[in-house]
Amino acid sequence: MSKIKDKKVLVVDDFQTMRRILCKQLVDLGFTRDNLYEAADGSEALEIIKDHDFDLIISDWNMQPMTGHDLLVKVRQEPRTAKIPFVMVTAEVSPDNVFKAKESGVDNYIAKPFDAQTVRRKVETVFGALE
Fold first, then answer.
1. Could you tell me the maximum CA-CA distance found in the chain, to the nearest angstrom?
2. What is the pTM of this model?
3. What is the CATH class of 4-125?
């Protein structure tokens, strides 16, 4: 198994500040900045996904024109991307949204606001304990 620094992660959020925060926390966990990709919405993410194989996608729920949930559905429909771990970031952790995302194949949630330890725990659910 390759090391955490070799894992490719796509961070999708319509707020550049949130992307920057998540990428900083991922670097602090041991990921390499060169393996972190950013997209401002689901449509942009799909374009990036066409050209790269990712080990993890972390996406905000509330974006326009394509939401994180819409991105999740499209990722799960494609055989090449269907198994990529997908973590949803959202301020709205309503039971309906949780159910909808679980049915669509989300692997985990990060509720806003969050801290570095929360990101660590969620990433560890995908990759195992980080050292």
1. 38
2. 0.93
3. alpha beta
